[in-house]
C-alpha cells in the first residue's frame, strides 16, 4: 500500500509540470525589469557573455531558471536573481521572452 | 581603484573578448554534425525524465556558447548528453562551432521555427 502510494506520488510529481498552467507573457514583461540590465530590453542582450533569450523555447527557459534556483546550474548572478522568484514568476518570464523575436533553430 | 588599474582591467577585457571571438564559422559548419541531430530539428525535446525543448542556438552570442560548452566539459553544468559531447571538443572546436551558430539562422531550412 505504502509502496503504491509512493509510486503514485512520484509519478504525479514527475507529471506535474506538464499539467501546470502556462505563463502569462504580459505579466512576465512587467516582471522583467531586473533582467534588462544584462539580457537587453526584450531579451536580445548586447554583451556577448550574457545569452540572448528572446525567442527561446519557454520550457527551456523555465528549466534553466529552476536549475539556477535549485543550485543545479551554477552562476552567481543568476542565483541571486532567481532566489526570490516564484514558480509563477518564472513561468511568466519564460512566456514573455519566448514571445519575443530573436533566436532561431539553426541546422 | 586607481586609473592605472582600471586601464589594465579594460585592456584585459578587450583581449579576452578578442580571444573568444576568434572562431571560424566556416570551420564550425564542418563540426556541428554532433549538434544538428538535436539543435537542428525544430521542436526536438530532451529525453525523460526532464523533458523540454532543446535550446535554439541560431543567433546566440558566440562567447556565451563557448562558455556553456566549457562548463559542460568541466562538469560545472549538468546534462549527460552535452557533457559527453563537450568532452570531445577542443577550445578551438568550441569557438568554431560558436561562431557558426552566432551567425544566425541564415539560409537554414529550419530558420525561424
Description:
- The complex is a heterodimer of chains A (107) and B (113).
- Helix content of chain A is 57%, strand content 0%.
- By secondary structure, chain A is an all-alpha fold.
- Chain A has one domain: Cytochrome c-like domain (Cytochrome Bc1 Complex, Chain D, domain 2, Orthogonal Bundle), CATH 1.10.760.10.
- The longest helix of chain A has 18 residues.
- The mean pLDDT of chain A is 89.
- Chain B is an all-alpha fold and 113 residues long.
- Chain B has 6 helices and no strands.
- In chain B, helix 4 crosses helix 5 and helix 4 packs antiparallel against helix 6.
- Chain B is globular and about 45 Å long.
- Chain B starts with a helix and ends in an 11-residue tail after the last helix.
- Chains A and B meet through helix 4 of A and helix 4 of B.
CATH architecture of chain A: Orthogonal Bundle
Unreliable runs of chain B = 107-113
| Structural class designation of chain A | mainly alpha
Largest sheet of chain B: none
- Number of H/I helices of chain B: 6
The top level CATH class name of chain A? Mainly Alpha
CATH topology title of chain A: Cytochrome Bc1 Complex, Chain D, domain 2
Which H/E pattern describes the elements of chain A?
HHHHHH
Determine the strand fraction of chain B and express it as a percent band: under 5%
Order of helices and strands of chain B: HHHHHH
Question: Helical percent range of chain B?
Answer: 40-55%
Number of strands of chain A: 0
By DSSP (H or I, 4+ residues per run), the number of helices of chain A equals 6
- Regions of chain A with pLDDT < 50 over 5+ consecutive residues? none
Quantity of strands of chain B, as a count: 0
Number of domains of chain B: 1
Amino acid at each position: 500500500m505504502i509502496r503504491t502510494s509512493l509510486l503514485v506520488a512520484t509519478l504525479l510529481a514527475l507529471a506535474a509540470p506538464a499539467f501546470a498552467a502556462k505563463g502569462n507573457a504580459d505579466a512576465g514583461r512587467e516582471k522583467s525589469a531586473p533582467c534588462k540590465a544584462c539580457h537587453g530590453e526584450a531579451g536580445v542582450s548586447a554583451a556577448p557573455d550574457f545569452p540572448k533569450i528572446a525567442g527561446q523555447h519557454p520550457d527551456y527557459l523555465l528549466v534553466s531558471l529552476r536549475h539556477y534556483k535549485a543550485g543545479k546550474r551554477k552562476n552567481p548572478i543568476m542565483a541571486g536573481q532567481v532566489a526570490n522568484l516564484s514558480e509563477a514568476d518564472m513561468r511568466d518570464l519564460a512566456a514573455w521572452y519566448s514571445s519575443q523575436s530573436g533566436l532561431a533553430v539553426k541546422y | 581603484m586607481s586609473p592605472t588599474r582600471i586601464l589594465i582591467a579594460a585592456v584585459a577585457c578587450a583581449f579576452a573578448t578578442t580571444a573568444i571571438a576568434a572562431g571560424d564559422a566556416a570551420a564550425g559548419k564542418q563540426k556541428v554534425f554532433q549538434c544538428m541531430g538535436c539543435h537542428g530539428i525544430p521542436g526536438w525535446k530532451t529525453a525523460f525524465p526532464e523533458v523540454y525543448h532543446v535550446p535554439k542556438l541560431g543567433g546566440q552570442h558566440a562567447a556565451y556558447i563557448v562558455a556553456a560548452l566549457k562548463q559542460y566539459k568541466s562538469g560545472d553544468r549538468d546534462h549527460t548528453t552535452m557533457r559527453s559531447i563537450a568532452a570531445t571538443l577542443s577550445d578551438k572546436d568550441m569557438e568554431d562551432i560558436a561562431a557558426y551558430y552566432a551567425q544566425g539562422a541564415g539560409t537554414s531550412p529550419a530558420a525561424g521555427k
